[in-house]
## 1
Amino acid sequence: MSTPVRSDFLQIEGVTAVFDGFKALDVSYFGVDWGDLRVVIGPNGAGKTTLCDVISGKTKPTTGKVVIDEKDVTRWRDTEISALGVGRKFQTPSVFDSLTVYENMELALPGRRRAWQNLFGRETAEQRDRILALLERTHLIGRKDHLARDLSHGQRQWLEISMLMVSGARLLLVDEPAAGLTDTETALTADLLLELKGNHTLIVIEHDMEFVRRLGSRVTCLCQGRVLADGTLDQVSSDPQVIEAYLGRGKAGR
Amino acid sequence: MAEYPIDPRQFALTRAIAGLGWRGTLLGFDRRAPAIGAAFLLLAIPVFYAVGLLDLAQVNQLGRYCAIALVAIGLDLVWGYTGMLSLCQAMFFTLGGYAMGMHLAMQGPKDGKGVPTSISYVSSEVDGLALPWFWQPFAHEWFTLVAVLAVPAIVAGLFGWLAFRSRIKGVYFSIITQALTVALMTLFSLNLLKLGGTNGLTNFTHLLGCDIRTGEAKLALYWVSALALIGAALFAWWLTTTRFGRILVAVRDSEARLRFAGYQPVIFKTAVFTLAAVLAGIGGALYVPQTGIVTPSDMAAVPSIMVVVWVALGGRGTITGAVVGALLVNLIYALLTTHMPKFWPFILGAVFVSVVLFMPDGIVGQWRKLIAWAQRGKARA
């Protein structure tokens, strides 16, 4: 691994996360520049989701420091980190099932997070147009008045991504967006994520190598909580340590 | 919402009702029919009394049911919309009831030292009891009104905030709320608390200078209860149409997603739990002058569970359902306990099981489904 160059938007330094003596995460340095799309790969249990948990404040690191946009957020609450502009897409699509697609988007709009602010008033015409434009982009416009529970798996994934887009989040943590999608759905998902790149900073966790190749972005490989390799997909996949991590497990299993 | 193992469409009974529902739309009924019908009936009760169709005891009974239905509206917001099965709504009802009961006792018969008979009878003090300090402000109407609203609100707000902050959810929340109501019942049963012990408070005579035993007062109390119920139902319905209401549903669907969208579920859960407690407290305060007694057993475990049964039968997640369920079950209860008291628990059990199996959305939820089917059928025709 080359010596890390300090990144300007997200820095994770010396972070460990220990659960019952098990070190799920042990990252000496991980950083992402503003506007970048970073793909995180790694075998099962490598600590990819824990990395997202630590950044979003769901899990507090045992040691180390998380800095987002020059703010040390290590001890911040999850809602405070969210207010800073960190949005998250869960591994299984997580939307509000009993609300319509439009209502889901409306709740994701920025601002109005206090209880009393939600009693009166509707979204502005400008916010409405933004929602409709986004739904158009994600092919959900025809289903805007349907309940989210009636959507297909792929549509739910897009709805969740659309909610992140409308929320004005600056750092998006996207956990396995292509899981369970058809090939055409996967292609659209990749296009959406690439479109977000530049205006947002993204961390995408993915298993599907075809999808990772399509994203064509810098890849970080985690294994047993540590950063194994970092670079283009070709560089990472030819790294002997990475090959060892993926194939060695197979050997050990026998 | 939960998935149900049985599709209601596959049963002859529900298909027959579906047919009726279809004819219903032809007659001009729509999904609001239960709400409009219930409100109309409640307002027509005094007319029925005036023309002699109902007697005073029946009007009084219906007035009490209106008061009880306020509790159901609160539980529907907490359970039907927000997904938290609270088993202590009768406790908030009884707290409101006690606040009103203390005021009524202060207006009622007293012993030589000016102590209401309710508590002087059960006092173990040989010398006779002096009026406890916390009883004195209940002589004032305004203080009583504030206490009716504030006591349940403070208990619910404090307990809710602590429970929700500790992320107590699901069945753990249900159990802890049930334990809370039983604990408070035990506390209120103590004579040394000077709230009348297990006998509770009774011997009520006057409220706002009127004798509450007269027919006029009973009719007036009916009006107040019915209008309070309609007002509360409209308020709750309005609340569910706001963004606040959609956030409550979002708490039920996915609290984690809501938290990562930047909302603090604790605040919304505490707010709705407190609101439900206030509604229950108002219900209790309206119930007690109409029934003439309030005792600690009003906050036993069973009354709170009955509220759940009303909401489930009427249709959780629909405000009208809570009202219809509360009124209907209590009317059936009154009818059956008069004519065949031994069968009441069996019939209630049978009704509950069949509704859960055949109409999982409750009466009003099922009605709305039928109307939707009928409208689709009509669109096709």
## 2
Amino acid sequence: MRFWRVIEPYIGFLLQGFALTVVACLLAIAGAVLLGALTASMRSSGNGLVRGIANAYGDVFRNVPFLVQLFFFFYGLPELGIYIGALETGIIAMSIAGGAFVSDVILSGILTVDAGVIDAAKVSGLSRFKIFTRIVLPIAMRVSVRPMGSVLINLVLTSSILSTITVNELTGAAKIVAATTFKPFEVYAVLLVLYASLTTLLSFAISAVHHRLNRFMTGG
Amino acid sequence: MRYADFTPYDIILLLQGLGVTLALFVGTTLIGLFLGLLLAIVHHYRIPGCRPVIVVVTEALKNSPVLVQLFLVFFGIPAFLHIRMTPVEAATLTISLNTAAFAFVVFRSGIESIDRDQIEAAKVFGLGRSQILRLVIAPQAAAFAVGPLVGILVNQLQVTSLISVIGVFDLTKIGNILNLRTLQPFIVWAVIGLIYYLAAKALAHAGGRIEAALRKSVKWGGI
């Protein structure tokens, strides 16, 4: 097969790129979820200033293209005297952009929890921390698995943009292979199918988690 | 004056970039929405063999990075078919298809949101296929679809920034040029970001008004 013949000598190189994509995505997902959870709790806060700051962050980073955000950090941070590598910059930018979307998902999950449930927990004498971790979070998780999944899949697709700031993750590695082999069609077609299969597998996994968390919900 | 300073001409440069971005966005949106609608209608009428092809292609477009799609079209297709393609052509083709894939899903669920009974009733009243599509399905599907479509279009506006990578002189590319010349990344990228932000907000606002107008006619009175 012609596609395999083109790709075969560079499999090791592409796998290195893939490993970098996986590392970047895992770290960025962790960062985005942490930042998103923090922002969501700020957005549900009673303090107007805290709420305003968190809302502004979410609003700005959802309405500015990721490429522009990435260039802002990549070219801007050294001007502040912060010298970090391109990969680190990329992971930070992905975390910040992802956090804005994750906070939306978590916030709407928290808002689905019935106020009566929280009152009942308070009356039962549970501490605020216990109410949040044992009551609110499990209920919120059930409804937010799917939307959270699509945000994370988007983050994986976004990671390809790191190739524009010299990170040789999967797309960056494929660019080099395409340039060396002079066979861009074959290389990018394979790359497209690879990303599509990766994200499809991810969405199956998300469905499985969704069913697992909702296994006590019968009927509908 | 050093060449590195900002000049009044930079404003014209920014406006040019914004013009290219908006023109490409409007063009690809129109093509994409039309194509997406066409796919949804073909899908609705169950033309043999079409359904799996449409679903696989749109899923592939939705589940792969736009940057890779751009590279495939701009570098891959000319090399494969031995044709010439300008960056603008490649960008228009890619973003249009991408928008079409997302729009298809929205239109499909819009059409599917309509009760079978309504279509049965319309048939009983003697309406033809195209009449049912125009008078029964289209108005309701449109009201259903506008909200999600606006979300998609705000997203696609941001996606257009990627075409700067294949050499289209859009707003982001102008940002690159100003950044390299002035070496003041904070100001340059903040201004570029602000312009995109305002454009996205304006788009969302316009979409909200259209949605309100469409929903007026199919307002749910409550039980």
